[in-house]
Amino acid sequence: MPRTAALKPDQVPAESKPTLDAFTKNIGFTPNMMATFAQSPIAFNAWAALLGALSKALDVKTRDSIGLAVSEVNGCNYCLTVHSFTAQHMARLPADDIILARKGHASDPRRDAAIQFARKVVEARGNVSDDDLRAVRDAGYTDANVMEIIALVAMYSLTNFLNNVFDPEKDFPPVAPAGAI
């Protein structure tokens, strides 16, 4: 049950409106998470700027897979529905790869290293081992790429936490609970 109402179009703060309108135009509808998040123009616009910048990091399959792994660790069912949908329809990940990503893995060895590292970052709250860092570097990721993985973990965790706190109504197709995968 939602803990706060998603804003109706006439309730959106003026400072959030251009960002929310751009998302609505690009997606084709206004996701409840965004209509909820828009209540804080400062937080919403900062997140949107980070999302835009990080859309240039790594590749879409890796980004969506990291989103799935982080959302699974953080127990964010709303984000799991979103990332499962985008992984299937935008990143064109097969269903098996979506499940693997939720478990912190990938069929592609390089992507697998990034996802495993992202999962370790969120689980260990950044206190990864030298071996963890070496493994992602050995897979071909530069220190700049590692920083991008960390930034993606932080960005996905932000929306996970927002959705876990406010529990907006889900508006993407449901996914199986973690225990069922």
From TrEMBL:
<dbReference type="InterPro" id="IPR010195">
    <property type="entry name" value="Uncharacterised_peroxidase-rel"/>
</dbReference>
<dbReference type="InterPro" id="IPR029032">
    <property type="entry name" value="AhpD-like"/>
</dbReference>
<feature type="domain" description="Carboxymuconolactone decarboxylase-like">
    <location>
        <begin position="43"/>
        <end position="120"/>
    </location>
</feature>
<dbReference type="InterPro" id="IPR003779">
    <property type="entry name" value="CMD-like"/>
</dbReference>
<dbReference type="Pfam" id="PF02627">
    <property type="entry name" value="CMD"/>
</dbReference>
<dbReference type="InterPro" id="IPR004675">
    <property type="entry name" value="AhpD_core"/>
</dbReference>
<protein>
    <submittedName>
        <fullName>Alkylhydroperoxidase</fullName>
    </submittedName>
</protein>
<keyword id="KW-0560">Oxidoreductase</keyword>
<keyword id="KW-0575">Peroxidase</keyword>
<dbReference type="GO" id="GO:0051920">
    <property type="term" value="F:peroxiredoxin activity"/>
</dbReference>
